[in-house]
UniProtKB/TrEMBL annotation:
Matching Pfam families: DUF4262
Source organism phylogeny: Bacteria, Bacillati, Actinomycetota, Actinomycetes, Pseudonocardiales
Protein name per Swiss-Prot or TrEMBL: DUF4262 domain-containing protein
Length: 151
């Protein structure tokens, strides 16, 4: 669990999140990996615009934050990815958007700010060989938090 999740000053942290979202439009909450649990990150603030929050698992927090910031900006300027959409990233992996089954169970601070009914998409990334976690030959620690479109 992240340090802020265990922070007894949670109301103070939520106030800081509200201020950050008001200033920037959205924020990225990183969660360091512990033991066998990989790192992950998610946006906070896209719900305010009627858009799904975005999540990435299995990437270092700074790499995930860069990806999330780029796609959050695109989501607000154009439109968010749709479930099942595959997006080739310049200089990066192919990603596929997968809707989260229970966003409020994973995006604690986004749910605290916007309610349990938030929606979210996971940006599932292919490995260096172009394989996704649902491929039998995929190697890597990237939990998928939802069900693929069409599965």
């Amino acid at each position: 669990m992240c340090r802020q999740c265990e922070n007894p000053d949670r109301p103070g942290y939520l106030a800081r999140l509200r201020e950050g979202v008001a200033e920037r439009g959205w924020l990225v909450q990183g969660v360091d990996g512990e033991g066998v649990d990989p790192p992950w990150a998610y946006t906070i603030g896209l719900s305010e615009y009627g858009k799904p929050e975005l999540v990435v698992t299995g990437l270092p927090v700074l790499v995930a934050a860069k990806l999330l910031n780029n796609l959050a900006a695109h989501s607000l300027q154009e439109s968010p990815p749709t479930p099942g959409e595959r997006i080739p990233l310049r200089g990066g992996p192919l990603i596929e958007a997968v809707p989260l089954a229970e966003p409020s169970a994973h995006l604690l601070f986004a749910a605290a700010l916007y309610g349990e009914e938030i929606s979210a998409l996971q940006l599932v990334h292919a490995d260096a060989q172009g394989r996704f976690p649902w491929s039998a030959d995929h190697r890597g620690g990237q939990p998928v938090l939802g069900v693929r479109h069409g599965d």
